[in-house]
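Researcher: Here's my situation. A collaborator sent me these components and asked whether they could plausibly form a single complex. I don't have experimental data yet, so a predicted model of the whole assembly would be a useful starting point for our discussion.
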Amino acid sequence: MNIFRLFGDLSHLAAIIILLLKIWKSRSCAGISGKSQILFAIVFTTRYLDLLTSFISLYNTSMKMIYIGCSYATVYLIYAKFRATYDGNHDSFRVEFLIVPVGGLAVLINHDFSLLEILWTFSIYLESVAILPQLFMISKTGEAETITTHYLFCQGLYRALYLINWIWRFYFEGFFDMIAIVAGVVQTILYCDFFYLYVTKVLKGKKLSLPA
Amino acid sequence: DDDDFRKDEL
């Protein structure tokens, strides 16, 4: 494993835990898109079905289980425990506009036409756009709490580090996976606008608010 | 093989 991959995983883990702790400590999920979190839970579930069929390493298995467990815990906090604080009116992105085309694409463009492979491909495509309901929510309300922006930054950083990891693996191991790379590039691009706002506002101590 | 490489990633 190279350093970019490791820090990518850790950044991903940080994002997930930041969000979970934010909701838990503030007893509120205001400003958080429950729809994005459901999409991430679907992403982890469909991608990590190989937990049942193959063992790679202790690191691999434990990280997968932590990601799945945390994502379901987050969904539980939003839709059950702190449901009263959930801002459903602003979380109005139509997820079927993501799931249906992504599902179709996974059936059409995959490495192998088998159930597990199509679900893996589906999870890769879905992950690349799963943050859209959250970004849509921020664009609707025009602002985000600082801790929410840290969450988004770690999510975007994770993707950017994975891209570097793939460049590394291509040069040193001759390995590349076109499906993962294209989806990863798309996903990273979605964060670019946010990265700009994060650097120019949040890191200078200002709250992230969009011009009206 | 390539499949193992891919499944190794999260």
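Model: Some features of this prediction you could bring to your collaborator: Chain A touches chain B at residues 5, 9, 12, 50, 54, 56-57, 60, 63-64, 67, 162, 169, 173, 175, 177, 180 (CB under 8 Å). The first strand of chain A starts at residue 143 and ends at 144.
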